[in-house]
Amino acid sequence: MTLRWAIPALALCVVLPWLPGLPLFWVTLANLIGISAIVVTGLVVLTGIGGMTSFAQASFLGFGAYTTAILSTRYGLNPWLGLPAAMAAAGLAAAAIGAITLRLKAHYLALGTIAWSVSLFFLFGNLDILGRNDGISAIPPLTIAGFRLVDVRLSATLIGVSVVGVIAATHNLLDSRWGRAIRALRGGAMAAASCGVDIARARMLAFVYAALLAGLAGWLFAHLQRAVNPTPFGLYAGIQYLLMAVVGGAAYLPGALLGSALVVIVNDRLQDWLPKLLGTSGNFEIIAFGLLLVLVLQVAPEGLWPHITRRRRHTHPRPIAAMALPKRVAAQANRAFEVANLRRNFGGLVAVADLSFTLAPGELLALIGPNGAGKSTSFNLLTGVTRPSAGTVHLMGRDVTGLSAPAMAEGGVARSFQHVKLVAGMSVIENVALGAHLRGHASPLRSILRLDRAEEARQFAEAATQLAHVGLGDLADRPATSLALGQQRIVEIARALAADPAVLLLDEPAAGLRHAEKQVLAALLRRLAASGMAILLVEHDMDFVMNLADRLVVMDFGTVIAEGPPEQIRQNPAVIEAYLGGVA
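RESULT FIELD:
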């Protein structure tokens, strides 16, 4: 999605509310739709893209609404100055709640936000400063150039402009290095961490950003309604906002507006139709919404927006004149990796026992062994995915034992995975640009304000260079998961190279490749080693390994049984018995 729609959208926000003959009732509904769309846009980032289900967005709406209500009624603060206060209150509340709740995963996180929503609802209704269940009334309206925004058409213009600004800002955030980090949270967190992404920070960023938007919506809600009470900030309202995201398309920004419009309008119509149809009054729309949600999940699990319009493929400008990214690390020490007596126990099982080896800059070292030998566990120990039970790891002379995956990436380690871990929903070049995360420095705020374009151009130029390096330059804008398995493995290598590593760890890079593709990969790895990069690979293709590696380390049952050049390993009786067998 580009931002070319923003100017005509702003023009519509100014013109549409004033169309002759347009009933004020529909303008009022449009205001409610706009406020809801702002909240739901936050849910698109948090839930649809970030993969964190939250039922507490209505609570953050309440933080924003109550903050501006108190400041403007009791302390006489100008309502416009209440905006930063409302957003700050919602953001600080989200940071405090997120510090506790974001430790939870999957459905536990959703249950945690339900608990917060219920607790905060009762808190709002029992504090004297908030007016208890009666709430706060006589909230002053907003004024612009002396005009009081008491006319719903004036409010509609302000809300419409706010919706356009929020969607544009969110688009900018998602189209940045931190946006790629948030998008990787859903199914690609381990890959993102290996690229240096601070996963906890990315989760907190999405959580707080969604709350900031809810705080903005609460500010608008308070000065539009001119009264607040706990009712709009409870669990049912939180469920409605989540329903809006699901119905519209939780992973699509336009879906926030579509879902909000559908739910608000259908809710209003059901409140009129159902009592007449059933001959009695009651909140029957709640039942209808439950059935609607089940129906949407069955028929259109991705929401309605993808069924209305095909998502355009987003291409990224990669100007030839873009400045190259600065080099991050270089292997200065005589030993890029030095592993001594590394050990990992899982209860009574010893997965890796006293693993020791060295890896020099420019060397190609292969770690081989039969299935269950401990190779993958060793990889995870060396890349910070798993903490060792004992032993030490030195990276370019620095003790990095027990450091996390992002810290290892910061130190100059990049890796691929045995089971390919590309981020679904992102193009090939976006996945590769994720590898350059640590080579950028733009903050989320700079991204929102679109002040990071020069850096983004450099990151995508680097990604394009690495794709060309591995021979996949013509597939840059293809969806990453649409590629064949062998091509996906090559994309992973390009992503690792985009990090400008000193040490490259490859887990079965030749699996799924045809013979000609393996020859191209071998030539690439030789060039990288010749440039001074230290390479460690696990591979089951013995012909590939024996013709490529300078030295081999052979593992069996978690221990090293042999180490040396390929010719020596071929003749080693212990290796023949444990692994090579008749192949030797």
